[in-house]
Amino acid sequence: MNWKKITAIVAAGTMMLLLAACGTTSTNKTSSNKTTAQVPSSAKKSDWNLKVVNIKHQVNAKFVPTLTTVDNSQQLDSRVVASYNKMKAAAKAGAKLVAGSGYRSYEHQEGVMTRNVQEREAKGMSAAAAKKDALKTINPAGSSEHQTGLAMDFVTPAENAAGSDVTQAFAKTAQGKWLKKNSWKYGWVLRYPKNGKSSTYIDYESWHFRYVGKANAKYMHQQHLTLEQYVAKLSK
Ligand SMILES: [Zn+2]
């Protein structure tokens, strides 16, 4: 066999392999299209409602969104108030939602961290251990999504009446269950799900919901994606 023939055979073989690969890819694509939702075509990483704020993506200390007061107590970015009110109205029959904590300024977030560290120290933790434990569910100033005005921590009416803070027990309340199941229909997502820590850097928070817009929320909910994972998908 001469080199020309060998080259031709190898080339033909390579072509068949390539075709086979293409065939497999397109078959997978076709079948997955039937069962998998498509990434919203208009979604862009730079969209205001997809803004990522976490320990690695900080928000400027001076950043203040245009705010509107909701529930006579908390503030949200004015652009998300209509969807927030719709969600509350829909939940009302089975689960009266109460705003626990919405927008926080840089200084407010600093105060939240200080208070939480002090509470832990009062229970006997060392300063270092208290800080480490607080950081599991609280972002330091500059890294909190609450500074965007796009997030809300919910409490139950009973917790609110008692003036108490968010608790892990919220997941088992009617409010927690309703939000987990339905918030996406109004453009809000459970921001820190179980097993989401590798991308969010925050433990499970059953009370913290974030506005991302209806189409994005639907996709994220169906595909079980955190905001970080979803945005990474968009930039690819
Ligand atoms: Zn929160």
From TrEMBL:
- Taxonomic lineage per UniProt? Bacteria, Bacillati, Bacillota, Bacilli, Lactobacillales
D-alanyl-D-alanine carboxypeptidase-like core domain sequence ranges? 74-214
Q: What is this protein called?
A: D-alanyl-D-alanine carboxypeptidase
- The EC number(s) attached to this protein equal 3.4.16.4
InterPro entries in alphabetical order: DD-CPase-like, VanY-like_core_dom, VanY/YodJ_core_dom, Zn_M74/Hedgehog-like
Indicate yes or no for the key word NAD.
no
Q: Which PROSITE patterns match?
A: PROKAR_LIPOPROTEIN
The residue range of the signal peptide is 1-20
- Can you tell which superkingdom this protein's organism belongs to? Bacteria
Gene coding for it:
dac
- One GO molecular function term? serine-type D-Ala-D-Ala carboxypeptidase activity
Q: How would you classify this enzyme at the top EC level?
A: hydrolase
Pfam families attached to this UniProt entry: VanY (PF02557)
Annotated GO biological process: proteolysis
| Keywords for this protein | Carboxypeptidase, Hydrolase, Protease, Signal
